[in-house]
Amino acid sequence: MTMKDFIHKYRRAMVVIANIVFVSVAYIAAFLIRFEFNLPVVYYTIILKTLPALIIIKGVSFYCFGLYSGLWKYVSMDDLWQILKATVISTVAFVVFVVFSHGLAGFPRSIFILDWILCIGLVSGARLFMRSLRENYMAPNHKTGSIRALVVGAGETGLIVLRELKKNEEVDII
Question: What Cα–Cα distance (Å) separates residue 65 from each residue in 8, 52, 74, 82, 139?
Fold first, then answer.
């Protein structure tokens, strides 16, 4: 099995694992930022008790908004909008979970906002990074003797044509 086949076969599982890592890192980083990287020991227990619920809530929300079905190499503004909606809904659901299961006494409210911002940044940033990497560094080598063309004044249609031409490996696009 080649690496390309492996990635294709387990792509969705890798996306789920990546999102679990991003959600966990964002949540822990929110606590670290809130306490200026000097986290009191009492919050270790809070993190360990609430992190599994956060992963489940965000995982369900990401699934409902279709974040596990798309390809990162074709991420668009619509995908970023879906990420924004999924994180808003999951953050509200997590706040409700914390209020009813643990109460807000002793739980810093700024964690919700910091986690929301960091989660959006990590989840969308990874997708944008993969798209940028594919478009800028994994593009096929340009062939000698190719003919240059310029698409002018076509607006949105021109962008669609250009994207389709870039996807086609038979055509050499600069």
Answer: 22, 20, 17, 6, 30
- Written as tens digits, the pLDDT of the chain (174 aa) is 787 777 777 888 888 999 999 999 999 999 999 999 999 999 999 999 999 999 999 999 999 998 887 666 678 888 899 999 999 999 999 999 999 998 888 899 999 999 999 999 999 999 888 888 877 776 555 555 566 677 776 677 877 777 777 777 566 555
Which pair of structure tokens corresponds to residue 56? Answer: 């489940």
Q: Could you tell me the two tokens for 25?
A: 């890192």
Give the CA distances from residue 170 to residues 13, 74, 130, 145, in Å, rounded to whole numbers and listed in that order.
31, 19, 22, 14
Token look-up 């809070």 returns: 46
Please give the Cα distance from 91 to 87 (Å, whole number): 6
User: Which H, E and C letters describe 25-86, residue by residue?
Assistant: HHHHHHHHHHCCCCCCCHHHHHHHHHHHHHHHHHHHHHHHCCCCCCCHHHCCHHHHHHHHHH
Q: Are 65 and 82 in contact (CB under 8 A)?
A: yes
